[in-house]
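pasting for the record
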Amino acid sequence: MFKVSDLSRRDFVNLADGSKLGAIKDVHIDPATGTVTAFVLQGARRFSLLSAGRDVLLPWSKIKKIGVDTVLVDLETSHRLG
């Protein structure tokens, strides 16, 4: 078992293209079961406010492996929010 705060220190890497996705910004929990259904990852921040990155919705089902330093996910680019 692990805490969400433990996951916040790990890199989320997309297997589809090798990109780093960002840090955990929020957690979606199913109120009926109390289980985590998704994470919202903070999009890449740029130097300009107008070019700030979009957040990424990461469904729990897309997580493939949780390692010591990295979380591997298989995510299409269509999961960008905003």
